[in-house]
From TrEMBL:
Belongs to the SCO1/2 family. InterPro entries: SCO1/SenC, Thioredoxin-like_sf. Pfam families: SCO1-SenC. It comes from Flavobacterium macrobrachii. This is SCO family protein.
Amino acid sequence: MLSFFKKYRLFFLGLFLFSVVTIALFYNALKPEKVLPIFNPADVNSELVDSTVQHVGKYHTIADFSFTNQNGKTVTQKDYEGKIYVADFFFTTCQTICPIMTTNMTEVQKAFSNNPNVMILSHTVTPEIDSVPVLKKYALKQGVNDSKWNMVTGDKKDIYYIARKSYLAVKTGKPEEMYDMVHTENFVLVDTKRRVRGFYDGTKKEDVQRLIEDINWLLEHD
């Protein structure tokens, strides 16, 4: 028996290699290709969406905006034109989830530090407290790269509207206060066409890693 295998060892080796290659090809052919969904208001938790757009089931994009960043510069959608970016909502005096979110967002910044096609946009939900100097101090403390990451303030009504009508990421607070906001832990991924492509728990390392992987996927497919 041993002499038989020695005699045909090249044949069996070739058969083995052929089997490995065939199995690999079948696996790749049958493995579902990664796809990132496109989110519309009708697709997400209605608590996070303004009632005027809850019915929208397609063609949803981020509205035009104009805010002021940590350097006192006006930031608009034109600064993010053709970019993939991550948006979130926070406030500098938050002592619960915000420090964790900001630390994790710096990991996103680090992962794409040399890629100008990826940016970050953080909105304060307490603009009456988070003035430009306050945001600048916070940005410096957190190691924010000004060319990649804008921390913005502005009219609370405008922040409220874009949070709930565009990013679908903020809950309402007290019913009697029309523009009261309760920010969530969501990081929102936006593609180059201003479409929402994903929501990620900014307090969880595994979700942030998934976000980084999805950004890399968009860089290749968007």
